[in-house]
Design brief:
globular, eight-stranded antiparallel sheet, 17% strand, alpha+beta, 16 strands, Beta-lactamase
Length: 435
């Protein structure tokens, strides 16, 4: 394949990787010694970046959000790290840089990376059936529908590792097509493995690989990590990702001594959508979905600092502070399109899906103003991160709100970060040079 025939995001990643790796000595730091820099030192305008602060403050002043913590990094340097508002409006506790948030679906990229670390050890191919490791899933049927109703047929192909990593598995059937006994199987137990094994008899929503469906696939990724590694997911993540990356505040349960740092959760209410308290910090004392449920779809607590370390590792091609978790080739594979032309409806048009990340594919359609090849994901309680390999920029914003469809706060982070760049890398990749 010629260099010009490769997908754009792969050409981007290969082009900027040497620049990213060259920055590694500059970002050698402890968890409390972050590589802070002035925006202008990495081609960003300070005055323009202040627009991010003002944008977040508007949501807080209008009582649409209690508070935010936002982080922007470029070329390995953190140029914006700002807490605003309150982690608890009721107690008037101010948001801080180290506030801990429930990151919901931002758990998925981390657990997906864990499985890809096992992939690098040669335990499986992406095309291997996951029933090699979860034999309870053998014999599944696919729900089909015609003018006479529904019926079930054998799948055209088995569910493979690529399918569960890219949400093309079909593992979440429509409840309307299930019997009452089958609907009962959907309920979670307090244990990940028991839940998945209990659901094994359920039919598939479609033939694996034929469509994109957001749902429970990353819980299957989590169980695969456990069965292949031979240890609980939480222990594998701690040993292989959190400790090496110095992600000291990322966990499924917040220790008692850190619980005062947890942000309360709010919900929009009334016609004006101002917020009211939904949950205090006390919910963080146990796993979110059950006493022993350590899953892949959601469950982790984290901070913007910790998630920056994970993001920077990916932007560096799998390495941070001299510790390598993944090969650059594997990271490139993860941010390739594995979902085909299906609609990644969670993020809207202009997105495809890789192995754990949504990927901006068409800037003319995407709601987020990010460069094609940018990979990202968000959480159901308002958190968001993105990594733009072209501009070597990372954006992270954390807040806690149960519904945010009426807000554009997550897109505003992208708008204000992108417009602050005054020395773009885009001309290096053939984009127009503007004088």
């Amino acid at each position: 394949m010629s260099s010009t025939s490769r997908p754009l995001h792969q050409r981007i990643f290969v082009h900027i990787l040497p620049f990213c790796l060259a920055l590694l000595p500059a970002i050698n730091s402890s968890a409390d010694d972050l590589p802070m820099a002035q925006p202008e030192s990495v081609g960003v305008s300070s005055s323009r970046l202040d627009r991010l602060t003002k944008s977040m403050q508007r949501y807080i002043d209008s009582d649409k959000l209690a508070g935010t913590v936002s982080l922007i990094a470029r070329k390995g340097k953190i140029i914006h790290l700002e807490p605003q508002g309150y982690k608890s409006k009721e107690t008037r506790e101010e948001m801080t840089e180290d506030t801990i948030f429930f990151i919901m679906s931002m758990t998925k990229p981390i657990v997906s990376a864990a499985l890809m670390m096992l992939y690098e050890e040669g335990h499986f191919l992406l095309t291997d059936p996951i029933s090699d490791w979860i034999p309870e899933l053998q014999g599944k049927q696919v729900i089909m529908e015609n003018e006479f109703g529904t019926y079930r047929v054998p799948p055209h192909r088995p569910i493979n590792f690529r399918h569960v990593l890219s949400h093309t598995s079909g593992l979440d059937p429509n409840r309307n097509y299930l019997s009452d006994d089958e609907i009962d199987l959907l309920a979670r137990t307090d244990n990940l493995e028991d839940t998945i094994v209990k659901r094994a008899p359920l039919p598939l929503a479609f033939h694996p690989g034929d469509d994109w469906q957001y749902g429970s696939s990353t819980d299957y990724v989590a169980l695969l990590v456990e069965r292949i590694s031979g240890e609980p997911l939480k222990d594998f993540l701690q040993r292989e990702i959190f400790t090496p990356l110095k992600m000291e505040d990322t966990s499924y349960v917040v220790p008692k001594e850190k619980r005062d740092r947890v942000a309360s959760v709010y919900s929009p209410t009334g016609k004006d959508q101002t917020i009211e308290l939904f949950r205090t910090k006390d919910y963080s004392d146990k796993p979110f979905f059950g006493a022993n449920y350590y899953g892949g779809t959601a469950g982790l607590f984290s901070t913007v600092k910790d998630y920056w370390r994970f993001s920077q590792m990916l932007l560096n091609g799998g390495e941070l502070d001299g510790v390598r978790l993944l090969s650059p080739k594997t990271v490139s594979l993860m941010i390739s399109n594995h979902s085909g032309d299906g609609d990644v409806y969670i993020r809207g048009p202009g997105y495809t899906f890789g192995l754990g990340f949504g990927i901006v594919n068409n800037a003319g359609e995407a709601r987020d103003p990010l460069t094609p090849g940018t990979f990202s994901w968000g959480g159901a309680w308002g958190t968001i991160f993105w990594v733009d390999p072209v501009e070597e920029m990372i954006g992270i914003m954390m807040t806690q709100i149960t519904s945010y469809r009426h807000l554009s706060v997550r897109q505003d982070v992208g708008v204000t970060a992108m417009q602050s760049i005054i020395d773009s890398n885009a001309p290096l990749l053939g984009y127009p040079i503007l004088d």
